[in-house]
Write a structure and sequence with these properties.
Elements (H helix, E strand, L loop, with lengths): L1 H15 L1 E3 H7 L5 H13 L3 E4 L2 E4 H10 L3 H7 L3 H11 L8 E4 L3 H7 L8 E4 L2 H7 L6 E4 L3 E3 L4 E3 L1 H7 L6 E5 L2 E3 L3 E4 L2 H13 L2 E5 L11 E4 L6 E3 L6 H10 L2 E2 L1
Parallel strand pairs: 4-5, 4-9, 5-6, 9-12, 12-14, 14-15
Antiparallel strand pairs: 1-3, 2-3, 7-8, 10-11, 11-13
Helix pairs in contact: 4-5, 6-7, 9-10
């Protein structure tokens, strides 16, 4: 019965492209909303669907939407190595201590972190538009979205306006996203304006925590925004190799 229901849900979502949780509750009235949510969690782990606000979408439908949407680059990245990003976010969440001034960078891994901070009193500064919207669900959090120019590909705000906004803001803990890392070039990203903002934050923060999934290891982007000696904690989804462990030991960077 369990497998049959999950298969039926999967077939229905594939046929319709996307469907809301309320619709699924009406179609399967004999089971609870919590049971349906567990079914959807299972199907997501099987990479058969992705969750969207209020419902779910088939991966094939998502792919078509990505091709038609100007913001598709971000949507595609959000579901790349999603399990690894969830692991990273779960490791990072305890560092978001209540009563501290926190910066949360833009990016799909940071969205996973934001989803874990729906409770607790936080003072959060972010340049991620979607991150700020996610954090707004926490009624006890103060959320400060920096101003500036929006990059539609990654929903990030940066530029001179963002730097000016951050000039008088104190930051205890900064959660930073890296697009690439190599021993030679350190932690890198591909946009100059975002590099300026990231560099400013790293220099300002009392503690810098870099969140980086395993797909970024061995990649180099155009701009180096920080090096291991400037990072307090590096959080990854997989165990570091011997080369990275050697760097961590030499620089004092903790790896989780």
């Amino acid at each position: 019965m369990l497998k049959g229901r999950r298969q039926a849900i999967s077939d229905l979502i594939e046929q319709r492209g996307e469907i809301s949780l309320h619709e699924l509750e009406a179609i399967f009235p004999d089971v609870s909303s919590m049971t349906i949510r567990r079914d959807l969690d299972h199907l997501e782990q099987e990479h058969l669907l992705v969750k969207i606000r209020g419902g779910v979408m088939s991966l094939s439908h998502l792919s078509r939407s990505v091709l038609q949407n100007a913001e598709g680059d971000y949507a595609q990245r959000e579901f790349l190595n999603a399990e690894g990003k969830r692991i990273i976010a779960e490791k990072a969440a305890p560092f978001a201590e209540t009563g501290r001034s926190i910066f949360i960078d833009a990016g799909s891994t940071m969205m996973q972190l934001a989803r874990l901070l729906h409770t607790g009193r936080f003072s959060v500064v972010t340049n991620g538009v979607n991150v700020s919207l996610e954090l707004s669900q926490n009624k006890s959090a103060t959320v400060n979205l920096v101003g500036g120019e929006l990059n539609r590909n990654n929903l990030c705000v940066s530029g001179a306006g963002a730097l000016e906004h951050l000039r008088n803001i104190n930051i205890d803990v900064a959660f930073m996203a890296a697009s690439g890392y190599t021993v030679e070039d350190g932690f890198t990203n591909g946009s100059y304006y975002e590099y300026e903002l990231k560099r400013h934050i790293v220099q300002k923060a009392k503690k810098t925590i870099v969140l980086m999934d395993s797909t970024k290891r061995g990649k180099t982007m155009t701009y180096t925004f920080c090096r291991p000696e400037e990072v307090d904690v590096l959080i990854m989804d997989k165990k570091p190799d011997a080369e990275l462990l050697k760097v961590a030991k030499a620089t004092g960077m903790q790896i989780l």
